[in-house]
Amino acid sequence: DRDTDKKRIEELLEENMVLEIAQKQSMNESAHLGWELEQLAKSTDLADTRKSFVFELNECASSRILKLEKDNQSLQNTIQELRDASLTSRESSLKFVELEKENQQLSKKIEKLQNQIEKEKQSNQDLETLSEELIKDKEQLQVVMESLKADKDRQVQ
Question: What is the spatial distance between Cα 78 and Cα 80, in angstroms, rounded to a whole number?
């Protein structure tokens, strides 16, 4: 039973490591998205709107990541407590089941975060496209205004 428990602890530690890696990747992607949004914000008239959006996006991602880190730390503490206290086989099995459930929940949260990041990437691309279209429309309107001014000046002369 103890060997089985030790193996389960090792498996849970490995799962925690995988979750930590995924979490760090999520943080890196969020930071990269923030950087991309900041670059986009510098190039258009919508800079103020985009900067606030970038800030909000980064804050949201950071808070989620901090929560996941806290949950992960809690799981690691629980595993350490299980090691230190020699619980009976039945008690430790119940704890492992609980830990596995928590790990599954964390995995789901990470997956949701990754999906949200993908949605946010798509939203950013849509905003960039819209911004480019607006700039093109503005340039076309300026050309039309200049031609109308020229026509008006010709008519006046």
Answer: 5
